[in-house]
Amino acid sequence: MHDDLAHLPGLLSGYAADLLATLDDRPAAVPPAPTEPRPLPAPAGLDGALADFAGRWEPGFAGSAGPRYLGFVTGGATPASLAGDWLTAVLDQNPATRIDSSAPALEREAVGWLAELFGLPSHTGMFVSGATMSNMVGLAVAREWLGETLGVSVAEDGAAALGDVPVLSASPHSSTYKALSMLGLGRNAVRTTPTLPGREAADVDALDAALTALGGRPAIVVANAGTVNTVDFDDLRAIAALRTRHRFWLHVDAAFGGFAALSPAHAHLVAGLDEADSVCVDLHKWLNVPYDSAVQFTRRRDLQIRVFQSAAAYLGDPGEDPVHLTPESSRRLRALPTWFTLRAYGRDGHRAIVERNIAQAHRLGALLDAAPGWRLLAPVRLNVVCFTPETRDPSEILDAVAASGETFLTPTVLWGTPGIRAAFSNWRTTDTDVDRVFQALQKS
User: Fold this and answer.
1) 229 neighbors 386 (Cβ within 8 angstroms)
2) Structure confidence at residue 99 (pLDDT)
3) Can you tell me the distance from the alpha carbon of 135 to that of 67, in angstroms, rounded to the nearest whole number?
4) How far apart are CA 264 and CA 164, in angstroms?
5) Distance (Å, rounded) from C-alpha 365 to C-alpha 371?
6) Which residue segments constitute the domains of the chain, with CATH numbers given?
7) Are 380 and 365 in contact (CB under 8 A)?
8) Among residues 339, 366, 276, 306, which one has the least CA distance to residue 95?
């Protein structure tokens, strides 16, 4: 191992540099091929392991960090965030407590910068692994708030102490259901409320009526700042105003739509986000940091501590140390790639990524709208194009473009119609890439 350490920098940096240099030309998707697992072989050293990976596994890895991977709202990794990620592994800090390093202080600074970007001056935040975990943490704090409102402690007595928990949402994301399942509230706690005609946004009057029907029972409302298919936004201010008449915790899923706050032309879409009790934002989407990075914000840090507090003297102060604020006790320093990319490019640099991707989505939408054989299923509001072929099965087209390696898009169903989603969120994507995606669709 000591010999490997001596030549690690040159060996790994050279190999990684080659991958980066060819990323734009890497197939956006690689159709899966059967690969049988093998027993653990004899030791080969770093050279041998790297050669084995390069020959056996790396060719099957998709260019998901590249410019024409348009599935799952996946960002790439800015150069600065990639540097931060490498240093995260090299330094290998566990930012659990403040007693042995400054890592928690850096994490706190990075969270503060994010709160500035999203206009959340009254919220505290923590890094978690992704949008699902961010939603789960926000809803866990909401669950504790319900207990406080009803005079019980869920953290001490369990979710059963709450009885029936109404969770109201117009277009809940799948991660909301998953989070509720993990929290013991159950997927069936969700009561979907009507949307506006031809929209995925909540009909606020209908939501008001649904809350009235609860007869004063406290509830959780999950609002959207950017739905998956049409990037539609609930009227957050109007929903928050309902709290003058109803008791509810307002959680906002702003996984990628929250980044509209960076663009002056689109910031109105997230007006009222600061009035939410908890907010989910996924950073490995539009912030373009490597995977395994999201942030959750809340106004009630005290309740968050009550939920996640660890009972051990060596784990520091429950009021200050991060170990008492997230589901994990051991975690990597996810904040470092975010700190690096924000320090390197600032608000203006990341605003440019957001605005460029929005323009690219509109470009693809216009090309499809003008071409025979295609139909937009919804207006292009932000960075997602939702469309369908008029005479063919969308799955055939998706298979064909994935097999070509030219691009990768995902299937969807919108209002009963099978379709295709193209999500723009990568800093590398250019207008030329948009045209190549369109041509790949035309040839499919």
Assistant:
1) yes
2) 83
3) 28
4) 42
5) 10
6) 1-39+49-92+335-444 (3.90.1150.170), 93-331 (3.40.640.10)
7) yes
8) 339
Distance of alpha carbon 292 from the chain centroid? 9
d(CA 381, CA 298): 27
- Confirm if 409 and 401 have CB atoms less than 8 A apart: yes
Report the b/e string of 126-162 with b at 16+ CB within 10 A: bbbbbbbbbbbbbbbbbbbbbbbeeebebbeeebeeb
Helix (H) / strand (E) containing 169: strand 167-169
Residue 90 to residue 214: CA distance in whole angstroms: 53
The radius of gyration of the chain from alpha carbons, rounded to an integer in Å, stands at 23
- Global pTM? 0.96
**Given CA atoms 205, 209, 212, 214 in this order, what sign does their dihedral have?**
negative
β-bridge mates for residue 278, sequence order = 251, 298
pLDDT score at 91 = 95
Residue-level pLDDT at 10: 84
In this prediction, residue 417 carries a pLDDT of 97
- Closest C-alpha to 216, from 311, 149, 297: 149
What pLDDT is recorded for position 316? 67
Segments of the chain with pLDDT less than 70? 313-317, 319
- Position 321 scores a pLDDT of 85
- Please give the backbone phi and psi of residue 207, each rounded to the nearest 5 degrees, phi first: -65, -40
